[in-house]
Amino acid sequence: MVSDSKFTPLADFLKHSRAESITMDFTQIEEILQFQLCPSARKYYTYWVPTKTHYLPKICMEAGYKISKVDLKNSKVWFQRL
Fold this sequence. Notes:
Elements lengths: L7 H8 L5 E5 H8 L5 H5 L11 H8 L2 E7 L4 E6 L1
Antiparallel strand pairs: 1-3, 2-3
């Protein structure tokens, strides 16, 4: 479990949402987190795929949402309720 993470504010936001899907741009995510995403988040799709070292997607899943789509060109992420 990665609940004690710098991404906890995003998890809290998602946990309190009742929406089936949420679309956010990177700036909105950074506002919730209160820090800038690392450069690789803007360059590589794999940043948004849950792995042992990619905590943001894992914490989203713990909050009840999966990352269903990422548009790096337009800096947007789609979250879908699990």
